[in-house]
Predict the structure.
Amino acid sequence: MLRKLAVSSIGNKLSAPSELASAQLVRLYRDNSDAKLKEVLVKRHLPLVRHIAGSFSNRGESLDDLLQVGCIGLLRAIDRFDPDFGKSFDAYASTLISGEIKHYLRDFGALVRPPRELVEARKQVNDTIERISSDGTVPTFDQIALATGLSVQKVADIRALDLSGYPLSLDDTGEDREGPHYQLVDQKYKSFQLATEDRIMLTQATACLRAVSREVIEFAFYQDLTQTEIAKMLGISQMQVSRRMKSAVRELWKLLNSRLW
């Protein structure tokens, strides 16, 4: 069945998923929801994910973690890509993969980038601590230094990485942490959420937008892309993106107000 679909979709020129262009594979996947086609797309673009994740590997985060996050971006690209726009799937996927990794680093990465030598030695220190503490012993810095061959000061600096450099969330109540608790957020805003009726109204209004307006709204507010990233994806200038954004927001505002009144 898959072979017949591939043949009919491109005029008998290609007959196997491995031979199809990515955009054509995405179209087949969208039309048939075939998990095997999605798997082919993921495997084909894993080198792209590795390449992009590798470019962020100097941020102090595990490359394996970055690869997993990048794969989430790839899966979103496969599900969201529209072949009818005539754009390159690889370019679209690259934007979502890098965007997903940037969001991960922004939300979970260290606020201050630690020295590379400390990051590289962190695993050795943590493995040593785990080995020594397996019998219930709490290792001292001197013991860790002796076991790893590192200086006591370097061990102390590495341990400090786990206690500093990460910002507290404004929503953090401190209930799951020992020590003093600090109230970071005004309680009157704690339960603020967009009402269900408003979310439904916003979704319906967005669906009524012109395609060009809906596209830029989705990229900016649903996928959290910057204007520069949107411009690169659409093949237009950042100034044009800004104009489309203003026009789309005005259009959305009119639709919402017409529903309210």
About this structure: The chain is about 65% helix and 0% strand. The CA atoms of residues 114 and 161 lie 7 Å apart.
